[in-house]
Amino acid sequence: MSTLSQLQSDLRSFIIPEKAAFFPRFFKTGKGQYGYGDKFLGITVPNMRTVAIKYKNLELSDVINLLHSEWHEERLVALIILTEQFKRANPAAQKEIYDLYLSNTKYINNWDLVDLSAANIVGEYLINKSKSILYKLAKSDLLWDKRIAIISTFAFIKRGDPSETFKIAEILLHDNHDLIHKAVGWMLREIGKRCGEESLESFLNKHYKVMPRTMLRYAIERMSDKKKKFYMTKNK
């Protein structure tokens, strides 16, 4: 039995039938919804992490095969392994993982898959490098590319630099998808938390009147009730 087969067998030992029934509804897999066609085994994130850590040294070719799985949980485990391998990799190996990640974004096709991996791989790789790829992703027709673009900037926010996030947010300001509104709002909120509320307010004062309300609500979540009321009242 190959190591990949062992991983898949171990993962299936954690199947919870009730979760398998619930997850397709939670991740919007119905016709016309953002997760249309995705399939779930029914495994919780803590158990997926347990399996991923056990197999964190899985051969990269097997990790990519796992990322191509029809099962959501197998793709998530693959991404956890990639993030673990990226942390420990030398610069050449990090570039290989980064390149593989960007060439497989069609398989990173739900918000949880993006959110646990984009900043940890794409964002971390781009520290002190050109950020041009993020602007290409932000202008993609693919929902998940756009979410990768904005979530990747979390790596910069953590280092006290909100500039790229603001630029990507401006590109996505008028996007029509709720998942982009939430992602942008989340990153803006993190700017307020980590880089100072003044920095966030500077951006909001330019754009709050035209921001989608969900985006704005997420962005101002940590502000005082007085400021929340000001921004939401003026945003119509």
Task: Tell me what the structure shows.
By secondary structure, the chain is an all-alpha fold. Helices cover 67% and strands 0% of the residues. It has helices spanning 3-12, 17-26, 45-54, 60-67, 72-88, 91-102, 111-115, 118-126, 132-138, 143-152, 154-157, 163-172, 178-194, 197-207, 213-219, 225-234. Helix 3 crosses helix 5 (72-88) and helix 5 (72-88) runs antiparallel to helix 6. It is globular and about 60 Å long.
Nearest-angstrom radius of gyration? 19 Å
What kind of sheet is the major sheet?
none
> Which runs of at least 5 residues are low in confidence (pLDDT < 50)?
none
Number of strands: 0
User: Beta-strand level of the residues, as a percent range?
Assistant: under 5%
N/C terminus separation: 60 Å
Shape: globular
Please write the string of helix (H) and strand (E) elements: HHHHHHHHHHHHHHHH
Tally of DSSP helical segments: 16
- Structural class of the secondary structure composition? mainly alpha
Please write out the topology.
Elements: H1 3-12, H2 17-26, H3 45-54, H4 60-67, H5 72-88, H6 91-102, H7 111-115, H8 118-126, H9 132-138, H10 143-152, H11 154-157, H12 163-172, H13 178-194, H14 197-207, H15 213-219, H16 225-234
Helix pairs in contact: 3-5, 4-5, 5-6, 8-10, 9-10, 10-13, 12-13, 13-14, 13-15
Brief sketch in words of this structure:
The chain has 16 helices and no strands. The protein has 236 residues and is mainly alpha-helical.
Features:
236 residues, mainly alpha, 16 helices
